[in-house]
Specification:
Blueprint (H helix, E strand, L loop, with lengths): L5 H5 L5 H4 L18 H5 L22 H9 L16 H8 L5 H11 L6 H6 L18 H7 L1 H10 L13 H13 L5 H24 L5 H19 L25 E9 L6 E8 L5 E9 L5 H18 L4 E6 L2 H7 L9 H11 L4 E6 L6 H9 L6 E4 L5 H13 L2
Parallel strand pairs: 1-4, 4-5
Antiparallel strand pairs: 1-2, 2-3, 3-6
The structure holds zinc ion.
């Protein structure tokens, strides 16, 4: 790399005196350059002073932002007081710059840390005569932390994106503290790449939506921001190939989101509720298509059982019957009891549920295309809730139009999170 020296920048010819000058006592004014011409000096061609010692304090390598900054902060002719460093923790900024996210989002986060996002409190601090109350919720002062983490709109987005271990109670009034919490989550183990990136795109879309509201008077639905954040991350991961990059060495990805079935198949999630004292069993089921829409759902009080495995078997049998009765022939049955799934798939056997096993195989044969897959409890939460709450006041419940409130939210989350 060609090196440019201070001689180059100041367009002076080095002399023996200059080479041996004591930099601490140098009289810069002896060099006949006028103040405020640094930018023009920087554009000068190299002079014949390449032999100037490169290890001098004044040696500037090829012009970069760094050398420009150095020169600006060491300008000998600058008689103005030094500019204060931007607000915010340098450590936090460094962590943000290292995130594998879009540069514009890094810059947005840096502006949040340096308190340079144009929220009402910041604009008022600069002399603008505006209302300091948040125009969205009309409750609190609009500052950066409120806008991104505590406004009613932001809280709804955070709920919808549903990031593991991050709840709306996780956030404080301190923006830096909140960002540090999100960075700690990024560095933690047990989450997928998608989940780790979700907070940053969520913040970005919360801010974009806020601006759309302030400047265009468009009140967006929080679900739109949540959906857009998820879609953007999916595209970002596909575009950058981040999936090919391993996460931290010991990371294991725990899927917490329900997934949609392929286009030609209907998915039926089922689960059992089992009282180990009374042997009382309830079953819940829900049928959804490849777009995440619910076709129908229900719950019923079932036979007594002697074990959780038997209870799960009754719930699956009930789900098979309810699905077949509604005319679906290509179905993926998804439950959270792996032992039962292995028995149905012929991987293992258990004599204790032999009769129930035969009943399930009988109903299984009625379907044209059927499969039985295992998922974890978090991905099966709608069926789990149906089993627990669906038959509190009756022995059978089924619907395909209006879900109860406690079910609406779960169904909505599943649909949003499965995009
Ligand atoms: Zn607000």
């Amino acid at each position: 790399m060609r090196r440019y020296t201070v001689c180059t920048v100041f367009h002076i010819r080095p002399s023996h005196e200059i080479r041996n000058i004591d930099m601490n006592v140098v009289n810069w004014n002896q060099w006949s350059s006028r103040p405020r011409e640094i930018s023009r000096w920087l554009s000068f061609e190299r002079s014949s002073c390449e032999e100037y010692p490169p290890d001098s304090e004044l040696v500037l390598s090829r012009y970069t932002v760094r050398t420009g900054y150095w020169l600006a902060t060491h300008d000998p002719f600058d008689d103005e007081p030094p500019i204060d460093a931007p607000a915010g923790s340098v450590v936090l900024k460094n962590r943000i710059w290292k995130l594998p996210i879009l540069p514009k989002i890094k810059h947005f986060l840096w502006r949040a840390v340096t308190r340079s996002l144009a929220t009402a409190d910041r604009l008022i601090s600069r002399g603008l005569q505006i209302n300091r109350i948040c125009q969205r919720c009309k409750i609190s002062e609009e500052n950066i932390s409120h806008t991104l983490f505590q406004c009613s709109f932001s809280l709804m987005v955070w709920r919808l994106v549903n990031i593991p271990s991050i709840t709306i109670n996780s956030f404080s009034n301190d923006c830096e503290e909140n960002l540090n919490s999100l960075l700690d989550f990024y560095d933690s183990q047990g989450s997928s790449r998608h989940q780790k990136l979700l907070p940053w795109w969520s913040l970005w879309h919360i801010w974009k939506s806020r601006n759309n509201f302030i400047f265009n008077q468009i009140r967006e639905n929080p679900s739109k921001s949540a959906l857009q954040a998820k879609t953007d991350i999916r595209e970002w991961i596909e575009t950058t190939g981040l999936n090919a990059t391993p996460l931290h060495g010991r990371d294991t990805i725990i899927d917490t989101n329900w997934t949609r079935p392929p286009t030609h198949v209907i998915k039926c999630n089922y689960d059992a509720g089992f009282n180990s004292v009374s042997g009382h069993v309830t079953g819940g089921w829900i049928i959804r298509d490849s777009n995440g829409f619910s076709k129908c759902w229900g719950a019923a009080t079932l036979h007594q059982a002697r074990s959780p495995l038997e209870a799960e078997g009754h719930a699956l049998l009930f789900a098979l019957q309810q699905t077949w009765l509604r005319g679906f022939t290509a179905v993926m049955f998804e439950g959270d009891c792996e032992v039962l799934i292995n028995i149905i798939n012929g991987v293992s056997n258990d004599i204790a549920i032999d009769g129930l096993h035969r009943d399930i195989l009988f109903w299984k044969a009625k379907f044209r295309d059927v499969s039985f897959v295992h998922t974890n409890r978090l991905c099966n939460k709608v069926a789990h809730s149906l089993a627990k709450k669906g038959c509190l006041n009756r022995t059978f419940y089924s619907d395909c139009v209006n879900p109860p409130i406690w079910l609406t939210e779960l169904m909505y989350f599943d649909r949003i999170q499965s995009i």
